[in-house]
Amino acid sequence: MKDQAEHLRKRIREANSMQAAKTIAVISGKGGVGKSNFSLNFSITLAKKGHSVLLFDMDIGMGNIDILMGNSSRHSIIDFFEYGTPLSEIISSGPENISVIAGGTGLTKLFDLDQSQFDSFLEEFNSLLHKYDYIIFDMGAGISHESSRFMLSVDDLFVVTTPEPTAVMDAYSVMKYLHSVNESISFYLICNRVQSEMEGQDTINRLQSALRKFLQKEITPLGFLPDDKSVSRAVAKQVPFVVDNSISIASKALSEIAVRYEMGDFRDGVTLKKNNFLGKLKNYFLSR
After folding, report:
1. Domain ranges for the chain
2. What is the CATH T-level fold of the domain 2-286, as seen in this structure?
3. By the 8 A CB rule, do 53 and 134 touch?
4. pLDDT digits (tens, 9 = 90+) for 125-172
5. pTM for the complete prediction?
């Protein structure tokens, strides 16, 4: 066990010195705000721009990335935890050649693993970090003790909301909780289904004001996505909207968000800095 732990520490040190994927967790305060649809289409948009992307569906028991793509994966993350199937074998291919790990009930099992099993997960995931440019975790709506560990380990947190008051309040609650655990964490905000630019900006301003007033915290707005009928038509057809209609206003808006994120083009000058995902995740695991 000691030799295995030392081997893992060595691999993590090596990982820190090599080019690794940027890790992103996409979260929301409540369901129904289009979080998974954003995760999928954002992943495809990055792939269209020449990046290698792995989309990891981490929604406990409610994974729906497969449904949005209109196909069914042979394997899911539960195959790794229950049957020992290597992570590389449960990856399926999606539009624009993105890689996808389908969801299941595996997340809760992750933190029930013994040290040897968890080290095995980190060992396999380490290889994925150096295979992709971006690894995007589509988290379940809301927050749990288990899911917060992933959220607190990634490089960047994308918070998806809509202008609906309950969605705004729930988004604030999630950010408040994560901030209480780690005050240095950064939030990037996307407002979905806006009727106008004014409505989107007003929603972002309300959340920014609340975080400044009560948490003394700044958030970085990535932009907003219009309430575009082409999106609902694509969902009904089970085709990602950036594939179904690449010139729709929603597809163009998402492309602008992706470019802004790639370039670090933020008004407050925030730079995109990679952290030690595996090391932080291991620390959260050991503090159970």
Report:
1. 2-286
2. Rossmann fold (3.40.50)
3. yes
4. 888 998 999 999 999 888 877 778 888 889 999 999 999 999 999 999
5. 0.87
